[in-house]
Amino acid sequence: MFIDEVTVTVKAGDGGRGCMSFRREKFEPFGGPNGGDGGRGGDVVVEADENVSDLSAYRFRPRHQARNGEPGRGSDQHGKQGDSCVLKVPPGTLIADRETGHPVAEMMRHGDSVVLCKGGNGGWGNLRFKSSINRAPRQANDGQPGGEGVFHMVLKTIADVGLVGYPNAGKSSLMNLITKARPRTAAYPFTTLHPQVGVIEFPESHERVFLADIPGLIEGASENRGLGHRFLRHIERCHTLLLLIDMAATDQRVPADDYSTLLDELGKYSSELMEKPRLVAANKMDEEAASGHLADFRARHPGVDVLPISCLSEEGVPELKQLLLKAARARKAAEAAQAEAEAAETHSETPAT
User: Fold this and answer.
1) Which residues make beta-bridge pairs with 148?
2) How far apart are CA 183 and CA 197, in angstroms?
3) Across the strands, what pairs with 8?
4) DSSP state of 16
5) Which of 155, 179, 198 is the last residue of a domain?
6) I need a labelling partner for 170 at 20 to 30 A (CA). Which of 69, 84, 254, 331 fits?
7) Measured between alpha carbons, how far is 68 from 83 in angstroms, rounded to an integer?
8) Residue 224 belongs to a domain with what CATH number?
9) β pairing state of 196-202 and 44-48
């Protein structure tokens, strides 16, 4: 079961109580206060981990709590700090406060982490209250309570290329052919019920391309028809979109109309999707009717550069892989330029000493 949306309730640990204690040893009946402080409560931390594929770990266990700090003890012994609770999520997870709806964090890269709730500070022991006028303080503080809250997590898949097409367009077959992912393939619609991310290996250059396959889109997907916009969000962070058009006209559809409908649904869902670089591949060119449909497609969309391919005969597949590699390199260059710009901005805002 692929889970890409959950709600979690979390609580940080409470701080431990400070200790009120006095030193009592032989020949030193008034040794003075020696009560230690309580330990700080553990934090609730969310960490992005590329080894986690979805949010299923929190579907049936939505409550998480960090450990409380230990109370202080005599002999100047401070309590142990409570262990933090670390929630691991896939890169691409958006976290928002459920009550206000405001975004809290966006986990984009492996290793990114954020503290959702801070643990409470430990209370002071009576040693802290000793002074020249209060030589034997009989007071100690309770620990502060840890923070708590309810948060909504939504996973948006991060990949170089997002694969978009109608049901039965051959998306799963293409994933099986060029990646090590093994999505289900069958001769009926919606065989892909959740997003799949495959890796295309290029051993000669030691490069990799991440390809995300989402369930097939139909007309009205932006209005949540079919599997709807629940899965459209998984291509929001893809640098390039690969539109796969079924040139065999499966289910009596017209390939040229399919292309227009896909663009229309993407634009209705988000105008930003229309600004992404696009590749168009004409699949099932091994079918008898494909040549005629391809000619009609080019006549109706003369400005679209379409690449004919066949997952059965592997026609055009090597050329498609090179185009995907070029798209991945463009994404890396864009990310490097953005990181350089952010570093330059941070450097310019740093005051000179």
Assistant:
1) 11
2) 10
3) 151
4) P
5) 155
6) 331
7) 8
8) 3.40.50.300
9) unpaired
